[in-house]
Amino acid sequence: MARTLGHFIEARDSLVTDAIDGLLASGGGTLARLDGYPDIRVVLRAERDAGKVAVISGGGSGHEPAHAGLVGAGLLDAAVCGDVFASPSADAVLAGILAVSGPAGCLVVVKNYAGDRLNFGLAAERARGMGIAVETVLVADDIALPGATQPRGVAGTLFVHKVAGHAAASGLPLSEVAARARRAASAARSLGIAVSTATIPGSRRAERMEEGQAELGLGIHGEPGAERLALPPASDLARIMTERLSATLPGEVPLALLVNNLGATTSLEMQVLTRAVLATDLGKRVRLLLGPAPAMTALDMHGASLSFLALDGELEEALVSPVPVPHWPMAVRIAAPHVKPLPRGLEGERFTPSQDETAAARIEAVAKALVAAEAELNALDATVGDGDTGTTFAGAARAVLADLDKLPQADSPALARALAERIGRAAGGSSGVLGSIFFAAAGASLASGAAWPEALHEGVARVRAYGGAGPGDRTMLDALIPALDALKTGDFASAAHAAREGARATAAMTRAATGRSSYLASGDLQGTEDPGAAAIAIAFAALT
Q: Residue 3 pLDDT more than 90?
């Protein structure tokens, strides 16, 4: 299956040079480039100490912020940028070496891809022929293919950048900078996982994976993974990945961990994965954490990679040293999270449990119906909202069911207030707040002597006052108001019928007054019931 995706580009031919110019504009004057467009694309520090060893790296573009975004004090002195997923030419690499190398010489960090090895290697030889002291370090941290004769260089390369940059900034000679960089390269291990491949801007994307599948061990250029598997929960995925990584790492040695976003993974997912990895046996040995962050991406690949580094004192010192490079994922020491007590004032009212079979049966029936309708309501909301109405109502219903025996069932005013408290705590978004307001107002009305129908109408009045919606505005009120009107003179069956008709009527309404639906065009709303109104109809139907 292939699909065309839109991209924010000027032209595919100028993609890399345009991106470099954008990076320079945001660099605050700390970055510069060589005047070699379009063939030579080298980003370098605007100012550097010419008496210290220079550190250079680079490769194909599309891995941003690597490599150009990592140019700065304590990291790279220059980054040589190729076309997307393609090595830069030997001339471009040589230009970078010549631009930043002084008497102290130059260290060139190379990811283990054939094009990079050849072009960076040739440039290094040519520079040596010109009398420049050059050392090269090859990074081959990918463990995806056991026994591979040429493991790929992936996100573990960033450990090498930082170690080399720190050693160079400390004034160490080229031989020692190279030795520490090689030690970092030999100690780094990485493994990637993704649920989608990358898209080169201006081109078409062909998906290899079905929904629910993932590729383990795919490359940062979109190369197929070592194996395809059904995507498990994050904890199981973390265990699978860390078990494979653990087999390649020395035991009982403290570790650094880089959790790298391959480009399109949400921050929520990355944080969940980080938590899961740190909970594994290997994760418990992590002393320094870098990320989660996009560090060496693969354009818009929806995936992540884990890179571990076996630490010694010098490597740890290098990783924790601060650098003024905004894209660098600064290392932090692992510490137990601080959990502080809730502030006073949130305890709320304490309710004395009491039993009433009729009230309990009605509450249970409505709650179970809303739980059962979770998927149905989410699907409805996915058309006109953000797809979580069912989850919101079901979450509130589960909270009420869990505390059913603790509710003051025989005390109507207290029962309404207790329902307000439970719903307000359990349900997110505006629906939860409005539900809490509804029952809190009903409880106050019941306490003043009103019967349930009148008290529920008072709840509706308060919801209208705070929520800003009314009949015809395509909200839950379009089902709730006619249901309560019918309940005044009839029974639950007539109320359920009125609620169902009210919910059905919202499908013909082309304007929503509040909520996310209010941002949609009339054509997007036409023919779809308001999910909140549908939930009210389901609740009243459960009472019949």
A: no
- The CA-atom distances, in angstroms, between 486 and each of 317, 423, 458 are 73, 25, 15
Token look-up 């030579």 returns 40
**7 has catalytic annotation:** no
- Per-residue pLDDT, averaged over 283-302, amounts to 97
The answer to whether the beta carbons of residues 40 and 34 sit under 8 Å apart is yes
Contact 483, 540 (CB under 8 A): yes
| pLDDT-wise least confident of 67-71, 139-143, 336-340 | 336-340
DSSP per-residue codes, 426-466: H--HHHHHHHHHHHHHHHHHHHTT--HHHHHHHHHHHHHHH
Closest C-alpha among 288, 282, 283, 293 to residue 317: 288
CA 247 remoteness from chain centre: 28
* Mean pLDDT on 212-232: 91
State the amino acid at position 433 in one-letter form: V
Sheet of 78-84: strand order equals: 31-33, 42-45, 78-84, 54-61, 106-111, 134-139
385: nearest Cα among 514, 510, 480: 514
Residue from 63, 221, 302, 497 carrying the catalytic annotation = 221
SS3 373: coil
pLDDT in tens, 374-383: 999 999 988 7
Q: What is the pLDDT of residue 225?
A: 81
Whole-number pLDDT of residue 527: 67
Give residue 200's Cα distance to chain centre: 21
Phi, psi of 305 (to 5 degrees): -135, 150
d(CA 257, CA 285): 10
